[in-house]
Amino acid sequence: MDQKLRVAVVGAGIYGIHHVDVYNQNPAVELVAVCDFSEEIRAKVEALYKVKTYASVEEMLSNEKLDAVSIATPDHLHLEPALACINKGLDILVEKPLATTVPDCEAILEAAEKNKVRVAVDFHKRWDPAAIYTYNQLNEGEHYPIRGYMNMDDTIDVPTKWFKWGNSSDPISFLGIHCADLMRWYMGCEATEVRAVGSKKLLPSMGVDTYDSVQSMITFENGCTWLLENSWVLPSGFAKANDSRTTILTSEKYIRINNQNRGVEMVDSDKTHTPNVFFFNDFNGKVVGFGAEPINDFVDSLLKGSDFLATGYDGLQAAKITAAIHQSLEEGKTVAI
Ligand SMILES: NC(=O)c1ccc[n+]([C@@H]2O[C@H](COP(=O)([O-])OP(=O)(O)OC[C@H]3O[C@@H](n4cnc5c(N)ncnc54)[C@H](O)[C@@H]3O)[C@@H](O)[C@H]2O)c1
């Protein structure tokens, strides 16, 4: 390879550190810098990865020559660093959601078009082998989808212990956005209307002012209707930090996915754990799994000039669905998209 892609990561918390790991191990990449507000995280990153760190995106962008940046700041804080990178002419990979509102997503895409840079979104669930199999099954043969069900839930630890920003997001922006993207990808068309109901009781009682759970009915252009359930209040004792299942009924096939139990159980004195062994795994000093693949594919696409597998446009279209869910929750009626 003649020249390495010069990459930086903004936000090296729970998930951003995976971006740091993957870039650090990709031979086509030079991990140039990492930016995080947290002094503790910066010190850890410097010690572990021997990479320069910054507390400010602007300072990093003025000091370093970069080709691309990953943005893994909290859900509601993607816009500002995304625009700063785009305005410097850098291609970006943004963690899901692209942004928490449709106008913010549009602002990112407009700036990208103006600056002639490319935007990818890390909708990593598309890289899950179970999702790939389902996508292929749906696109094979002459059948048509009739009905779908998807849930994606987290344990209550996620909004109450993992994040300091639970108040500023919710199970729809954090989890539902993955589902909205998967549904669009599976269906090959857009959603037309949404009706949602939700409850806000348990988390507010614990000081996190957001939805415990939301149920949404989503209709797609092909007539297929989906029931989507997302919650942030599974009991802490659950076998994994999240639960997820999908069923799809078509005119010829019935597909059921259990994303919760991926076939491995590990019992310790605490409880039975069902780790997602396909997501991230350390093997021979290298991070492997479908969590790493979209980050490596971002690099490949930039080096080869090929299309991203999940684009900024996908981020915008998924955000339209989650925005309609939010609107339906507020107005108590069906919302057309
Ligand atoms: N945690 C998960 O399991 C998970 C999984 C998939 C995707 N994601 C996505 O990854 C993103 C980050 O989530 P997380 O769980 O890593 O959150 P986190 O709170 O653990 O980390 C976010 C980090 O961003 C830093 N930060 C915020 N604004 C910044 C800025 N402008 N400049 C520099 N640093 C900044 C914070 O200091 C923090 O360390 C979110 O969009 C989330 O939806 C998270």
From TrEMBL:
Residues 5-123 form the Gfo/Idh/MocA-like oxidoreductase N-terminal domain. Coiled coil: none annotated. It holds the Pfam family GFO_IDH_MocA_C3. Residues 155-253 form the GFO/IDH/MocA-like oxidoreductase domain. One of its GO terms (molecular function) is nucleotide binding. This is Gfo/Idh/MocA-like oxidoreductase N-terminal domain-containing protein.
